[in-house]
Write a structure and sequence with these properties.
Length: 408
């Protein structure tokens, strides 16, 4: 069996378990780093999802969750800027999902990722009454945020977005801030700003780049962010920084909930405004039309996309790591890094991440920090530093059960 076959065999088949739904393909601001508009084919799609496409999508969702008896099926409304779809469509969508849940017993949590500019009291009421969680794109304080997140007239958007973030935090709405790391600024500036806004859950994402680019080093930034996370949560868990918690989860041998960390298949399914179905939408950074498939929700069930060659190629690439990654001690925790960051025009995805050296440094630092902070309890109640439980130590041998005896 080849290494690639072995990888595929290690990850069992499962149905699509979440959807990314593009309800709008246009945006009302002009972010310089946005991956979405790197692919000009998005302009060929309808600006907004029509009621006709929406009804077909809802039918496919109900068929899918009923067929596979899913317990839950998270859906993220996305864009472009999804709030351009309109508040009434959000109510209509959430109401339909509630009805599907009542008929099938499958919970369908709905979330939205937005730039926040359009948020007002009507939107807040919608999010709160419909239990729609909100991820708001906010790159920390104004002097960082407004570098990249500007209007089409060239002015900053920070004031409007900060106002929206504070409004969200004041209501009974699940809210997370999504920032993009700018390593030219210390992580404390982000952390202090989010704390001042009343936002305790946020992510500072690695900037999108392919192997053909030369992004700035990020290791020092994220090592500093880990220190801030530890300080904030030393007495009690008060602050969730998603990338830090995901890396810790993966380093401790568990599955990270997001696709950018850990060795596991990326099986995200994206539904476009016209009902076509694509692979992971961030793969657009590879070039025009790179995510396009021949599948759509009118002719195909949701899970049929698993047989679509381009979707399958992206899924397989996420688990078939290059040789350097296979030899790395952090292979399982890192998983080769975020799939789009492994792309090159010459080798496709058969590369280490463009951030490989940084990721190694980040995981090595995190491992060292965790080893100095974590303890395990022996059967008698004695606490032992986790370093002493690593493979090959006396305690590891004590805690490992002896193999059962076999009759001859």
């Amino acid at each position: 069996m080849s290494a690639d076959d072995s990888d595929s065999a290690a990850f069992q088949y499962q149905p699509i378990t979440q959807l990314l739904v593009k309800v709008a393909t246009r945006c009302n601001i002009d972010c310089s780093y946005c991956y979405w508009f790197r692919d000009a084919t998005v302009y060929k799609k309808p600006k907004l999802m029509s009621s006709h496409v929406l009804q077909q999508l809802l039918q496919r969702i109900e068929q899918h969750v009923a067929r596979y008896k899913l317990v839950d099926f998270p859906i993220i409304l996305h864009g472009g800027e999804p709030l351009l779809w309109g508040v009434e469509n959000f109510h209509r969508f959430a109401d339909a999902c509630e009805n599907i849940s009542s008929r099938t017993g499958c919970e369908i949590p709905v979330a939205v990722t937005t730039n926040g500019v359009l948020i007002d009291d009507e939107w807040l009421d919608c999010f709160e009454t419909r239990n729609i969680s909100v991820a708001i794109s906010l790159d920390g304080p104004a002097h960082i945020h407004d570098i990249h997140r500007r209007t089409f007239q060239g002015t900053g958007t920070h004031a409007a977005v900060e106002r929206a973030a504070r409004m969200l935090a004041s209501r009974d709405i699940g809210v997370m801030a999504l920032a993009v790391c700018n390593p030219a600024y210390p992580p404390a500036q982000y952390a202090e700003f989010f704390a001042a806004c009343g936002i305790s859950s946020y992510d500072i994402m690695i900037p999108d780049a392919t192997v053909d680019e030369k992004p700035a080093s990020i290791a020092s930034f994220y090592n500093g962010l880990l220190d801030l996370w530890l300080a904030a949560n030393r007495s009690a868990p008060t602050t969730n920084i998603r990338i830090i918690s995901d890396m810790i989860t993966a380093l401790l041998g568990n599955n990270s909930p997001t696709e950018g960390v850990g060795h596991k298949p990326v099986e995200l399914c994206t539904v476009m405004t016209d009902g076509t179905v694509e692979a992971h939408d961030v793969l657009r950074i590879a070039g025009d039309g790179f995510t396009q498939t021949r599948f759509n929700i009118f002719d195909h069930a949701i899970d049929d996309v698993r047989n679509e060659p381009r979707w399958k190629a992206a899924r397989d690439a996420s688990i078939h790591l290059c040789e350097k990654c296979r030899q790395c001690k952090f292979m399982n925790a890192c998983g080769g890094g975020y799939l789009p960051h492994r792309f090159s025009k010459e080798n496709g995805y058969d590369n280490p991440s463009v951030y490989c050296d940084d990721l190694y440094s980040m995981f090595e630092n995190m491992q060292s920090v965790l080893e100095s902070h974590l303890y395990v309890s022996k059967p008698g109640g004695e606490r032992i530093n986790v370093r002493e439980t690593l493979p090959g130590t006396q305690l590891e041998r004590e805690l490992t059960p002896s193999p059962p005896a076999h009759d001859s």
